[in-house]
Amino acid sequence: MDIWFTEKQTPNVGITCKINNTLIVEQTPYQHLAIIDTEQFGRMLVLDGMVQTTIVDEFVYHEMIALVGLNTHPNPRRVLIIGGGDGGTLREVVKHPKVEKATMVEIDARVVEASKLYLPEISSALHGNPRAEVLIEDGIRYVKENKNTFDMIIVDSTEPVGPAVGLFSAEFYQSIFEALKDDGLFVAQTESPFFNADLIRRVYRDIAGIYPIAKLFLAYVPTYPSGMWSFTMGSKKYDPEAIVEENCPDLKSRYYTPAVHKAAFKLPQFVQNLLKTD
To answer: Is 239 considered catalytic here?
Structure first.
């Protein structure tokens, strides 16, 4: 008998995948964790019933959440990642030749441990990379305790439920502003324009109220709700649309290119409308 996994992406929409094998299922101190092997997308990390990443399409999300900001900042020597326990964002950050140290702060040790064991393609930077530091602690507290420290901060969070709720607050974005250096910037994943319009509108308004430059960009991840996914950048100085393509290092990426970087900020009209403020 075939076995299927279904993520209820909204009360009325779901994504269903045929399962080959279930690798791990457990309740951590923070969330329900599962890694399953699917027919279509390979091994898949699921937290609280929601798909976080898969072997087949993870490169889109991880490259875009990391490389857009890294190539916007001319000298991203110190980078902080909040969340991202699977290690995919850390993997992309340490590829960049100007990064001297990347610190990943993840609250749930079991996500890190399970990803190292079952998702080695994604978690490679977790295995002793000399430029990578992994801390198991509360990211919100860590940001508050480290002011004027980082060139770039990435908020690689789960959906805004459970332990991730505080990562979508104006107070947290202000703490990030204070943790950044004078020319720093940050990038956060900000959900689907189709299914999370109110969240995107609120988050963009909050970030635009704190940072001189606030911009939203898009990428397309098949296993995420609706496929269309948004990221929002808050920058103290550098405009992500002003990059010089010839100055961007060749990072051997599969989705990201400097041309895609610029194109990602050309938004459909309905997404532009979400960002309009009175």
So the answer is: no
